[in-house]
Amino acid sequence: MNELKEQRLNKLKELIALGIRPFGGRFDRKDTAADCHEKYLEGKEVTAAGRLTAIRGHGKTAFCDLRDSTGKIQLYIRKDNLGEEAFAVIKLLDLGDIVGVHGTLFTTHKGEVSILVGELIFLSKALQPLPEKWHGLKDREARYRKRYLDLIVNEEVKDLFRTRSRIIREIRRFLDERGFLEVETPMMQVIPGGAAARPFETFYTALNSKMYLRIAPELYLKRLLVGGFEKVYELNRNFRNEGLSRKHNPEFTMLEIYEAYGDCRTMMELVESLVTGVAEASGCGLRIEHGDNVIDLKRPWRRVTYRDLISEYMNDPDWFSRSTADDRFRGASGAGYIGVDASGRDNP
User: Strands 113-124 and 181-182, how do they pair?
Assistant: First the structure.
């Protein structure tokens, strides 16, 4: 790896010696890779930019794959088109470099839409080599620690980001159309509340006061209800100073909704309509594959009490009655409760 990086550093020096700025140049892109495919016209002049993900040289010609956020387009570079000096730069290109090109669209003998490059502008030199195989970064640890690298080499991860963006947009549209007001409530609070979690602590120098990052927006949203806003929601960041795993992040996004004059059934109907409506509008559909399971969101959803769910899971219709009759499962207020620890033993 060090040798590969050294080679790239030497190429960087050669670029500078040729009078080429290796970083930070402006480029006015007019066409994306998707535009080149979807709006294809033989001989049409285009201006594109992106990252090089494949380079195939053949003496006086070279083929490169240029990838941007919309997809991939092939570049066809000929020495007689660029000229001697400009074509010499091709030898200094590496996978991961970012370039801009001016050229014309054409279709190769194999039927692939490509750009015949008339001018190539160097925009940024990649000093770190990409993973050896372009088909993806497989090491899970590296993928989570170097998210930017995961995005470069795994296109399906980009699709997840795009899907999330569509979902967030549709959530806002759905709630706005139903008269809900989107608000922002404080992230730094004097008293953390609204949930049972350990907060992150900080110190606000101007007030000489200890502060906490919020664990939930609930209390401030309810104050807005008191103030007269009858339908409010917030897509917010919450912070909980607790465990860390692939299923739990101490910093996460939550949607919290409040509506006056309603009850749990009001929220049931709202959530069911929200989830199914957003799933369809964002292109996810009502049947979602998750691992070996298929989640069917088709309405109407089943409505069932917690007591019936527990009895069903325990395969014992009388379980709840027997449990709440036993003093072991009663709290100070007389409410029935039970917990089970990792070993499966009763843990009141």
Answer: unpaired
pLDDT of residue 116: 96
DSSP classification of residue 123: E
Over residues 299-303, mean pLDDT = 92
All structural domains of the chain with their residue ranges: 2-124, 163-304, 305-348
Residue percentage of the chain with pLDDT more than 90:
60
Tens-digit pLDDT profile for residues 105-139: 999 999 999 999 999 999 999 998 887 654 556 77
Predicted local distance difference test score (pLDDT) of residue 345: 38
Structure tokens given for 248:
């739990």
Type of residue found at 54: A
Fold (CATH) for 2-124: OB fold (Dihydrolipoamide Acetyltransferase, E2P) (2.40.50)
* Token pair listed for 172: 């806002």
Burial class (CB in 10 A: 0-12, 13-18, 19+), 225: middle
Q: Write the DSSP assignment of 199-241 as a string of letters.
A: PPEEEEGGGTEEEEE-S-SHHHHHHHHHTT--EEEEEEEEE--
> In whole angstroms, how far apart are CA 13 and each of 7, 8, 9, 26?
10, 9, 6, 20
Beta strands in the chain (DSSP E): 45-58, 61-68, 71-78, 98-107, 113-124, 181-182, 188-189, 201-204, 209-213, 231-239, 251-259, 287-290, 293-296
> Is the domain defined by 163-304 classed in CATH 3.90.930.60?
no
Beta bridge partners of residue 288, listed in sequence order: 295
Contact 231, 208 (CB under 8 A): no
pLDDT per residue as tens digits for the range 224-280: 999 999 999 999 999 999 988 877 889 999 999 999 999 999 999 999 999 999 999
Q: Give the global pTM.
A: 0.78
Strand-pair partners of 181: 232
Query: Rounded to the nearest 5 degrees, what angle is found at the Cα of 303, between the Cα atoms of 300 and 308?
Result: 150
